[in-house]
Amino acid sequence: MKEVTHFIGGERVKGTSGRFSDVFNPATGEVQARCPLASTEEFARAVEIAQEAQPAWAATNPQRRARVMMEYVRLLNRDMDKLAEVLSSEHGKTFPDAKGDVQRGLEVVEYCIGAPQLLKGEYTDGAGPGIDMYSMRQALGVCGGITPFNFPAMIPLWMFAPAIACGNAFILKPSERDPSVPVMLAELMEEAGLPKGILQVVHGDKEAVDAMLDNPVIQSVGFVGSTPVAEYIYGRGCSNGKRVQCFGGAKNHMIIMPDADMDQAADALVGAGYGAAGERCMAISVAVPVGDETADRLIEKLVPRIEKLKVGPWTAGDDVDYGPLVTAEAKKRVLGLVESGVKQGAELVVDGRGFALQGYEDGFFVGAHLFDKVTPDMDIYKQEIFGPVLSTVRAGSYEEALGLTMDHEMGNGTAIFTRDGDTARDFASRVNVGMIGINVPIPVPLAYHTFGGWKKSMFGDLNQHGPDAFKFYTRTKTVTSRWPSGLKEGGEFHFKAMD
Ligand code: NAD
Fold it and tell me: In ligand 1, which atom is closest to the CA atom of 148?
């Protein structure tokens, strides 16, 4: 049985805790490897190494740090296919999707090449007689990150690239369900010229996470995953005095106005609802057509498109629309929610419950489902399903559709499809959600903007990547200096007057 390793002190090292979790091949249901789950002591060892390595890295000038990022971009491009293959084999997503996972992470590394510019401070010349004032951004020290299974390349890259570009050391605790790619990413960083100990990968479960949250050396914790865990990590991390940002779950609504191009809206919904088997935090899981006539037209367009979706293993070629879910547990949970939807009275217009794939009967595949006439009291509306299940909630008016989106406790992303500029503008301005699409179903901001939801989709102040990441991974220090000539010219008086 293949054994995944940690990446500690610049080496692949075996776990010593004696605890492991299974890594599946989601297409066949077989266990393909085991992932070590670190003990508190193993985690503490990584922290010691990081603490020792970090000051020299922080003292390396930003341009040199940026050169490591530049070389890293080259290596990620060189190994793109290799990374995507391993990613698909553990996660189950299609090969083009896996390459997209690496690509969207790589774009943040490209942004980090701008570190020398992004880390420049501010300067006020002559804040008083002989007095100058300047502020600088300094690295935090040793930072930690905890990432989910659904983007095993992109989200780790979103965290560690800016953290490292800012001069920090970083310890990543990736998802134990698809743990191999993060180790490959760390190895490549070292090949790009990163000193040993600046980026480490420690696998684990709650024990490793708690070890991170309670270790006084760790200055900041970034988390992406489900909302209950996000809340837990935010609370414990903050109460331990750390800087914490936690990104949680989602329930993204897409409003379809009567004037929308219905073919465009249906195509968008199929891609955003079923792509990656719905295992995306920016997936659209709720369609909100405005008016019964719009709803009927939409459903009519959706059904044949959904029935045509090709479900299969990543090895079956690039025309596969989506692959299996990540684990048998995830499959059971999604199918359980589908049953609850039926019991609670939603209309199952496309029923994927009997789906089976010849030769892959033990894989974690789930057929596509479409519900109509879903109401806000149903579990399929309240909960994040994270599977290929789209719910339609019919709204009587734009205000009702907007109200639904605003009343949901999640607020990651949302979209509106319309030809009316006024409505679109009103929606973008009033809705209490972090990322908005106008005729764009998955409005994931590019690397030079920032990514983050509102409400229970985000805990903390600063978003991921873009300028916010450089703020999150640095502290501001402001220096006020006075030189003797200022004193001679009565600077003392002026300086006092300034207070
Ligand atoms: P998860 O919360 O189960 O796991 C995320 C991480 O937390 C993993 O590393 C896991 O090992 C760890 N973890 C799990 N349970 C824990 C516990 N009790 N205590 C401490 N650590 C624990 O999430 P997942 O299933 O890996 O990922 C899917 C979720 O992530 C979905 O809810 C999805 O919406 C969300 N997500 C959000 C974003 C975003 O940017 N908002 C992006 C991607 C995924």
Answer: 26
User: Do the Cβ atoms of 150 and 178 come closer than 8 Å?
Assistant: no
State how far the Cα of 244 lies from the Cα of 67, in Å rounded to an integer.
28
Is the fold of 2-248+457-479 the same as that of 252-438?
A: no
Pocket test for ligand 1, best of 6, 158, 175 (most atoms within 8 A of CB): 175
- Token digits of residue 412: 């990651």
Instruction: Please identify every residue annotated as catalytic.
Output: 281
Instruction: Report helix, strand or coil for 93.
Output: coil
Q: Which residues are CB-contacts of 497 (< 8 A; sequence separation ≥ 6)?
A: none
Enumerate the domain spans of the chain. Answer: 2-248+457-479, 252-438
Whether 247 lines ligand 1, by a CB cut-off of 6 Å, is: yes
CB 127 within 8 A of CB 481: no
Query: With a 6 A CB cut-off, is 211 part of the ligand 1 pocket?
Result: no
Residues whose CB is less than 8 angstroms from the CB of residue 203 and which lie 6 or more positions away in sequence, other chains included: 4, 6, 15, 35, 36, 37, 38, 173, 174, 176, 179
Architecture of the domain delimited by 252-438: 3-Layer(aba) Sandwich (3.40)
Ligand 1 site, residue 231, Cβ cutoff 6 A: no
| Residue 494 alpha carbon to ligand 1 centre in Å | 55
CATH of domain 2-248+457-479: 3.40.605.10
Ligand 1 and 226: CB distance under 6 A: yes
How do the pLDDT tens digits run along the chain, 499 residues long?
A: 999 999 999 999 999 999 999 999 999 999 999 999 999 999 999 999 999 999 999 999 999 999 999 999 999 999 999 999 999 999 999 999 999 999 999 999 999 999 999 999 999 999 998 899 999 999 999 999 999 999 999 999 999 999 999 999 999 999 999 999 999 999 999 999 999 999 999 999 999 999 999 999 999 999 999 999 999 999 999 999 999 999 999 999 999 999 999 999 999 999 999 999 999 999 999 999 999 999 999 999 999 999 999 999 999 988 999 999 999 999 999 999 999 999 999 999 999 999 999 999 999 999 999 999 999 999 999 999 999 999 999 999 999 999 999 999 999 999 999 999 999 999 999 999 999 999 999 999 999 999 999 999 999 999 999 999 999 999 999 999 998 776 665 545 455 545 5
